[in-house]
């Protein structure tokens, strides 16, 4: 993780755009028209992710984390405000394949082998079969699934499927990775292993990451900065910079570090600001 | 044993209190073809004979002789050749009255088609309804050295469209029904109805293939062992014959009766049907219903010679003796003679029927 | 309550496989034996209910005619199945792409699904000619069309949102999307539709023969045999038609399995 | 994960009328388009159809083969025949349709009982499922028309006390033969649909098969059962019509179907009356199951693609 | 939480059975016959859960947590050894309704209202409709869903559904609650709230709980003792007693307590004993 630049403790939503920034979100609102009226999913979102930076989005269900990520990926358009990726419009960045993406469900095509799934984006963009095979081999090696190249997704465990999806998202060497709860479906131990691996991969590739998660320890462990969001309508509650010194040799020890627990506490408190911590009192659930 | 009703008054005793239940299975839907039975019912002839008759129509797949053989009904109307097949398959039934003396089957082709005899069928598309109605064709063809490998047999459906549109070169038609359908159809070229001049008509009655058609069949075993059934048979035949006499004398009324019984045809078509049916019955040389041995043997011979497209013969051996009997019809005829009913109809004259478009 | 455990031992698995094969055969034999017993011992009239032995006899005696009749009817059913399936898939593709077509086709498809084949047979014979097999093929085609259309349309709607998003992320062209995601997703549904259609195609082609057209198919021979009270022969033709239906069903089932292989948990 | 859960329910309630209207509109448009295509082809197409090789791939356009759509419609309002007492065609068709509908309902009920019974047996004993299911599937390859006379004949022997077998009962039996199949399959799938979590829950409650059936399996089968019942209803109508034709039963729509088909040479439009009648009939039968669906709507909160 | 007896720091698998113990598992093995051979799911499991005690089972996927719980619930039978529940056989205890059970999915019957779902066990066991209604009211009040009695499950959020399932498992006032990852499907914030509520309910009812989880913080926060299991074959790796002083007034503060983090660390270390902590090394996943 030595290549990763130091996290920037300033609230970067106010800093001017530089083309070196991976993502710049400025004054974004997003409203959905539904049959039962309008849903204000995001309000006045401002956020800058520097190149190579690891930023997590955390917040209660429905606060707009996925929506924000989809705006960056150009899978949806903001109602107001602008999103730029490496200085281009989100749409241009998508067409240029400037980012790789992974979702909560691995989203593999069940009728394709592991190798064919990983090679899908390359195939769609017309890479020669030779280049493709070389790259697939490299990627599967990176996620430790070389032996499973010819398997079908349903023959893999959830963790392995997720690793295939991550390999796929890295296929075109993007400088930005978008990940929406990629480890949500895994058990805690596999998850920890995947987290460590993700950090290693990021260190190797130097990609910036926007990472959506529900898990505070995960966000703390992985991120340079944690963006805490609050719902109704989705706003950025607070951006918590992490001060963990990462060292691949001792990545695991970190999880029992004092600084780690402090980070967890800081994020917890940020999360509970606004929505008071329940103390066993009965409350109608937020829906 | 003698007939139960030597005199008219004898039968009247039965009327009113205890009628004998009788079921009669037709071989198709109610229509003028069966006018005599419906007339007998309508005019109370059955009741006069002490019978409570239920007439059961048939449709696509009901085989009347099987219904009879299975004991579902007491009597059945069916063509002789079809029943011969069933008898060989094990049906135990007896022809007790040959109502139609003549075959009413035609093969109709266009006037300019050049098909004027069965021999001309070779290489042509010949229509038939199947369901056992095809044996006259096969028998007539066999006499000309033709079989299903030399002509193409096409199943006709319920109307003549296949012929009118040229899918079939010569269509099977009954004088009393399908032929009339042709004459009820407007010629698209002239806008007028087709006329007899537009068609060539081959009547199987004129060929070797001619076979006996509508006959009344009874359960052989019961005929032999059941005296009550024997008596009922004679009474039943008496009433039926009176019904047919009524139909011959009053074709308009008879056709109205079948219409009321549920025939779906229009009045003109119905009347035509009754009239043509009468022509197949009257005049009856030996009295209506009497079975002509020669005609029966001819039918058997035809059935033995006919082979269908699956290579199956209708029958492979002569039917057993007792497949027909004139015992009961003779008793009925005698009794009617005594009552002064004309059962021969020597001076029968058909009426003229004008067909309307669509048979309506 | 029967608690079936998901896991089974190897020996249990083997027993299951054997039972799965033996059980239906046993039921079949039981019925046949009971049938033969009814006829030959109890003495239900052999005339109406021929014994299995008599049917087998007829089957052997008329074997060449069985084969040719089966081929005629089978060909009609096959052609109908293929044409109906192709039309069903094409129209479903259009309906999937354009909702108004979907809505507009709804009443027609619903009507086709409930219409008795006998109602259409005479009309189709008039329209397409009674001298060709086309009327029957059209009927088999109409009967096949409905399930294929309905299933295919459903299949086209099954594309997972995550796959759709993925394609958008890759900036894939519509042709690429159809090729890589939409079609493969729909394929198992299409084949399920075809499997359902297969039995319908056979039955319809056969029933249509009762209502005119060239002779020689199974339906015509069943009716001819029954009309001359040759019930054992009629049953033999029924057996042939069951075999035909079974062949269609198994063939399309195999196709379906082939199309869905390797994606149990998709 | 939360708001979406609520959305479908709201969606259905809110805009149902408007969407229904649009659907119906398109439906009517669809029928009009078919009619227009029919007339257009009739106008443009060659009288003898389009023949490629041996096969006529497009139909003939004569009045005999393709009557004008308006003739088909106006014929409905003309009397059946010239007979003084004749009803208009539509009335005749409607009366016949009612008879058929009644028999179909009986056939459907029998099919429901048999199909559901089979499904219960198959659910209860795995061995029964293995033994019976292949035959249930095989039964659909048997041409039922071959059985019509036999059923009628067997039926005519049934006479228990005052009860006497009627012809319409044979027809209903044949209808039930067609109706039971989708019901048996759908019910079996439905009865087997509860997740292990639910069956195990019942097990922890220490209740037996019957209570599990009553409280869990039957309610859970409703979403599978309803489409099966709908299919069964449509099949029952088809079965009745076929059986009416085949056994020659009077009074129903099958009977007038062949009767009017027999008159189609001289009166081509008439034959379409019962065809339309049988379509309406099938739709009505299938539609009436929708009423059942509305009554059981709480059991279909999880909708299933069956 | 004051009624909860103090955790017992001894390895209780060796202690003699007392009928006061909620669960006693002795020398249990469980082998599954599968198509691909035998799977040894559990070996030599010994565990005693005292009345009123809260015991969590934690361990990597496939270590046999669910299997062990299913043995206690009599949903499966052990291959060797014995399971007693309140001094009876597991089967007797099941028929006597001595325990309530909740799974990862709420497993509500979708066609029943919330009230009818909660009342299901009572209905099955022939409670009068009056008793039933009274109990349902009480239970819904306990889980804070009184206002939702007439709703259907699909109208509730995941957290609310899980609360209904818990109410259902409590319907017959069992002295033992078996819970298999009941909060696995919830987001972290809802999950924390549910944990707090579960503790409150346990305190109110005094029931013993066997709780399966993947989350270390969850296990630490909830339990008197955490049973750490290891896979292949499933064994008890270590039983870690928790030394948190619980106080309903400050239930939330606990999560940021030093003792809490120590507990987390202790469990993490127990988990990683035997299966070495991965440090980014590639390993084929356990399936
Ligand atoms: N396509 C859409 N149409 C309508 N509303 C939507 C749509 N997508 C999201 N929403 C609404 O926008 C809000 C934010 O949703 P979003 O999925 O971004 O939340 P999230 O933070 O990702 O939640 P979770 O943690 O459950 O994934 C929610 O209220 C949701 O219902
Ligand atoms: N019914 C069964 N048949 C065969 N093997 C089984 C069965 N149930 C469980 N197993 C096997 O037993 C082992 C333990 O399974 P179990 O479900 O108890 O693990 P777990 O700890 O609950 O895992 P998870 O955390 O994924 O829920 C696994 O290897 C599993 O494959
Ligand atoms: Mg989300
Ligand atoms: Mg588990």
Automatic annotation (TrEMBL), chains A, E:
CDD domains: ABC_NrtD_SsuB_transporters. Keywords: ATP-binding, Nucleotide-binding, Transport. Pfam families: ABC_tran. InterPro entries: AAA+_ATPase, ABC_transporter-like_ATP-bd, ABC_transporter-like_CS, ABC_transporter_ATP-bind, P-loop_NTPase. Residues 1-20 are annotated as: Disordered. Residues 25-256 form the ABC transporter domain. Coiled coil: none annotated. Residues 1-18 have a biased composition (Polar residues). One of its GO terms (molecular function) is ATP binding. PANTHER family: ABC TRANSPORTER ATP-BINDING PROTEIN, TAURINE IMPORT ATP-BINDING PROTEIN-RELATED. This is ABC transporter ATP-binding protein.
Automatic annotation (TrEMBL), chain C:
It is a multi-pass membrane protein. GO terms for cellular component: plasma membrane. Keywords: Cell membrane, Membrane, Transmembrane, Transmembrane helix, Transport. It comes from the Bacteria. GO terms for biological process: transmembrane transport. Residues 66-259 form the ABC transmembrane type-1 domain. It is found in: Cell membrane. The chain crosses the membrane at residues 21-42, 75-96, 108-128, 134-156, 177-208, 234-255. Its main location: membrane. Belongs to the binding-protein-dependent transport system permease family. This is ABC transporter permease subunit.
UniProtKB/TrEMBL annotation, chain D:
Pfam families: BPD_transp_1. Keywords: Cell membrane, Membrane, Transmembrane, Transmembrane helix, Transport. GO terms for cellular component: plasma membrane. InterPro entries: MetI-like, MetI-like_sf. It is a multi-pass membrane protein. Residues 111-292 form the ABC transmembrane type-1 domain. GO terms for biological process: transmembrane transport. It is found in: Cell membrane. The keyword GTP-binding does not apply. The chain crosses the membrane at residues 21-41, 93-120, 132-151, 171-191, 275-296. The keyword Transmembrane helix applies. Its main location: membrane. This is ABC transporter permease subunit. It comes from Mycetocola zhadangensis. The lineage of its organism: Bacteria, Bacillati, Actinomycetota, Actinomycetes, Micrococcales.
